[in-house]
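Build the 3D complex.
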Amino acid sequence: MTAIAASPPARRTGWRQLMGFNLLTGIILGVVGWFIGYSAIGLHLHGAGIAYYSSESGQNDIAIVLGYIFGVIGFLIGLGFANYPMRRLLGHPPSLAAHESEEEGLFRYFTLSTDHKVVAKQYMIGIGVFFFVGGLNAMLIRTELLQPNTHVFGANQYLTLVGMHGSMMMGIMTSGILGPFANWLVPLMIGSRRFAFPRIEAFTFWLLMAGSVILITTIFFGGFQTGWTGYQPLGAQGTAGYDAYIGFFALVGLSMTLFGFNLIATIVVMRAPGMTWSRLPIFVWATLSTAALMMLAAPMLIAALFMAGMDRTVQTAFFIPGQGGSAYLFQNLFWVFGHPEVYVLALPGFGIVLELLPVFARKPLWGYRLAVSGMLGVAFLSFFVWQHHLFVSGINADLRPFFMLSTELISLPTGFIFLCFMGTLWRGRIRFTVPMLFCMAWAFNFLWGGISGVFNSDVPSDTTTHGSFFVMAHFHYTIMGGLVFAFFAGIYYWVPKMYGVKLNETLGKVHFWIMFIAFNSTFAPLFGLGFLGMPRRVVTYNPSWQGLNDWVSASAYVLGLSMLVFLFNVCWSMLVKREVAEVNPWHSKSAEWQLPTPVPLHDFDRTPIFDEDPYPYGVEPVPAGSATVAPVGGST
Amino acid sequence: MTDERHHFRNFAVLWIVASVIVTPIMIFLIGPGLPPGNGSVEASGQVTDNTVLVAMATPVALLVLCYLGYAIVFFRERNPETVLDGPAIRGDASIQFWWLVVTTTLVLVLAGYGSARLLADGSGGGQGPNPIAIPKAPHGTTVLPVQVIAQQWQFTYRWPTYGGVETRAIELPANTLIRFNVTSLDVIHSFWAYELGVKADANPGVNNVAFVTTKGPLTFHVRCAELCGVWHGYMFGTGTVVPRAQFAAWITQQRAQYAPATKNLPPYSRSYFPQPLRRGG
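Done.
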């Protein structure tokens, strides 16, 4: 595709590497950008009387927003994103060589890299860090809820923790599976050497990191009181910390949109010869349907947040009732994005689980076309259900039967996925390795998520469950039980190929069982608390519910402990023991496992040609009465 | 293949037996305990609705659970060191077809049942300014309008048929159809009277109507169900349903007590627009 320049520029070595464009210069220019936007421009606008609304509360929202914008621009320039356009303007030939090299060793993970394998590992670590920060927030939330009336944190701090936990998990974990695994796997699975737009691939990652740091800065500006939904006009009256929420989610939305375009272009255009649509691995189909959701849904979020930001800074009134605005408008825009968004979280999980099942059941994927239509069906229908979040809000009340139907229709394509799951296990020879255990747990958890979803989708039943802990339990069963369990299945499965190290199997099983039991012990009682009438996001509650809440908090700590077991496993297996993985420890027949470990810089020596279906497992039917099974182990 | 039929029959028997045993247990043991109880006609309707959902969900859940158990026991590789392939089954047209037929039927029945219940009496949910599902008032009574005004961070109640008095407490007459007109003065709240089975968002500038038909006397909890700012967690209280005579005495007393304040209130309206929007909450 892109011509590689004949001689790559000479590279700096040792400490001299720091002199080029890298994370350090990015941070420095990011801070410089903040001061330009905030102090040099924003505060002067304030003085000129433009920021009338802000002056009322003593908070200069214009300055803060400008600080974020200039900070992000500085950060990206510091990382070197401006180099390529500048070089092109000056007449240099296009080249990716500046951003792809194996000579730099670990240092390349701290620079702008367009190697899809490096970006995937950057995502893995970056997202991992914020996943643990978000999880820590959850621990603090549960600590506050140990007692109904004694407070560890104030009400404002508590709501900020709730909002940060929600935003981090919903915003950053949208790339939780796609970031590490789609970036790493999609080119390998479809036989491409890179993404269609490698610079945009890197861009999405660094945008996400910039956004995440912005979200954390909310604690310096009084936090935000709105939860991850950021409803208006509550947001318009919120403290300056809400500007961080806007900045964070807008960057996440931009990152999602670009990622979606990039994935679609890659999968449509860059498949190797023979990789027909019906030979596409099911994980790539899941990625493709997710990408379509991200591309179409995230712009809604950007629009909503742009308007919310305008309301706060330059005195528009998009969402201010009584000044011509509508609070419903934000709810509508947010959930037109927000409901596809939850399937952005769920679909990659479907993909990983169905991708792993054939390997561990030693059978072809059962009902390949059904699984594909299930994923595309979920993706399509998810755009027609958003008002079930507004069943009691009084908006379009006459349309509630329609949204009830459309919501319940989503259980049809989801049912396809379950049927394919069950069909693949049917008469398989299942090996319960750690990744397979996580896949089985996915089915168990997602089942309860789906069943409780029926209660939420049914308006008469939803009248009680709406806005209660029941809903909270429901979406934790689908997102944590679905996405996070599939995420760990993917980690245990692909780390031997990505890092060349096998994670300890025994520690993995300890991690799995603690996590699985503690997860159910944490979230199953929340269904009960919702049924008893406990609303979401409350800092205090009816003292009669304390027993259940304490049980949940204790279980949540154990759930947090299981993450420490995982971290210990990673440190032990990667740093202490460092057991070099076999080339194909799972005896998988997928394309990525046929490559050497570590996967070379340009993936394939020559373009691969695909000539069979992606799951060539299983013994073809033999005449009745014969029970011969042929061993196939060890094939690479 | 005999092996195939053998497994299929065993699993079918397991699932059917489990469903036949567990479903009645769920309906008769769990059903009566389902929320929100029998505090009002609409609440009882929701309990029935929840019971139907539980009855339909139980066999579905058991299908997957029994299957997971069956697969773990019968389809596991006994010797994990060996890597042997299973049969290359890539699908089954008739199973896929019947799965689609059965799940579609289930979903359509569910949606039809839910819609029928919803359109019959509104199920206590907020229906916006122009409600279409209006329950019939009990014989010989008329509907009692109550305006619920939410603000950070309390609910107050305005009684248009009693001179527009605004009270801090809420008492409702028994066996009466109540029309809640829910609105807000600042941000979005949600009026949730748990035992009555009522939930309606309070939107600024919007009149969100919810109906409920009270039964006998009881105490009910009122909570805010939509995050509305720092003290959202403290936005709760109780109300009571009392005999009609007791209600008449209470509202008369309230009218007299709040008479000076009522004079200064803005005239009764479906919504209010106080200025300006406060900041810093």
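The longest helix of chain B spans residues 41-74.
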